[in-house]
Design goal:
Blueprint lengths: L1 E4 L2 E4 H14 L5 H17 L9 H9 L2 H14 L3
Antiparallel strand pairs: 1-2
Helix pairs in contact: 1-2, 2-3
Amino acid sequence: MSLTFEGGEYSEKDLFGEVREAATRERVSSIVQYRDLIDEIVEEKRIYGFFSDHEDIEQIKGDLEARWSEIEKDLARSEEVNIP
């Protein structure tokens, strides 16, 4: 899926990368926190015009939410690296 905005294209891969970075930085520890993070980032992108009027924002959020298991694995690896 390719998300469009006036500055060019912004892919769902780019969006997931941003969500992944934020989840790691903020040490998200639950699906509830992950959903909140998705809502925050998607809303910010919507406000700044990263989504066109015809895009299904709820579907985009659902697609990102479905990738929670990837985030959990990233966080587990991150914690292993930070163990003294």
